[in-house]
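Weekly puzzle thread! Below is a chain. First person to post its structure in token form gets bragging rights.
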Amino acid sequence: MENPKSYGIKLNRNQLYKPLDFKIVEVNGPVADWVDWAKRHGLSYAQLRDANPWIRAQKLTNKQSKTYKVRIPTEESLSRSKGPVAVFYKGWIQD
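Winning reply:
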């Protein structure tokens, strides 16, 4: 992917994935149910897991009161049609 034009790959700006923006929520205690927690923060459990691959169970016991930083995608970044598409490598797109 470093030189896509050499291999006949031609992408338009609107074909690229839009990077997600996040807000961070700190969790210092247990979470009884990540599904409910996600709903209270305006996203689905799948979106929560996608943004936080370290979440592996449906609850967090957190007996030691460790601080976890949970990434929550902003509503704007979850919609592909809102906002400009950032291009990390200009060689990916045709002008």
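Puzzle host: Confirmed. Bonus trivia for everyone else. Strands lie at 22-27, 68-73.
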